[in-house]
Prior knowledge:
CATH superfamily of the domain at 88-240: Vaccinia Virus protein VP39
Helix content: 25-40%
Distance between the termini: 31 Å
Mean pLDDT: 86
Number of helices: 6
Largest sheet: 7 strands, mixed
Amino acid sequence: MPAGHYGHRMRSPSRYGIDGWPYLLGLSGLTVGLATVAAGSIRTRPTLAVSAALAAGVTAVPAVWGGHYVLRGKHTLRDRLLDEVPWSGDEVVVDLGAGAGLLAVGAAHRTHGPVHAVDLFVPTDLSGNSADRLRDNAERENVAHRVRVHRCDIREVDLPDAGVDVVLSTLCLHNLAHVSERRAALDEAVRLVRPEGTLVISDLAHVEDEYAPHLRAAGFDVRVERATATFPPQHYIVARAPAAGSSERSRPGSRT
């Protein structure tokens, strides 16, 4: 990790939104509703009150854990993912599914190079999800001059082959409904990264059974880790691209 400003662990006032907010809002509402039923029926219908209280307890656990992830867990995960990159201080970075910029802005504190933040900014994926929110967060963190926003599909990124040193992504690829779409996104990451570059991808599904074997088949050295204190539970991949000219590397079709 480079020394000085670019190596610090960011604790920012920036606004990074609520991941999967319709689900978390629904859980919270259901918990409150069940608790209300339990409190209102405890004297007249004790059996119902006990059942409602137990159900409220069940729904409260993921709701509270999700709230903790939004407030603290996602920042801890961000730091852990960025720590997996062997930073030298001049890397070119792309964040696939950047959202409000949690990873992209964090990466901009680790490198002097440009950080390309790619997203379609779908509002149901993240509360307040927009290119303007991302730019505002980069401005708040004094890294706006390094963060470049691309509104496009992560499977069709307007950057050259082997043009980046680091590919990052979190809670993004699972939103692609079909395995062929997720493979296309991984192929785009393979196309973008330079020889001996680094991919760090975190997600709530498909990490071990799809992403890891697909990248290994492309010649990458892959390690899978469990991400702690995340909701929903996540695993992440750290993948190193093979050296230039390696017979192991299988690169998708060139776009340059």
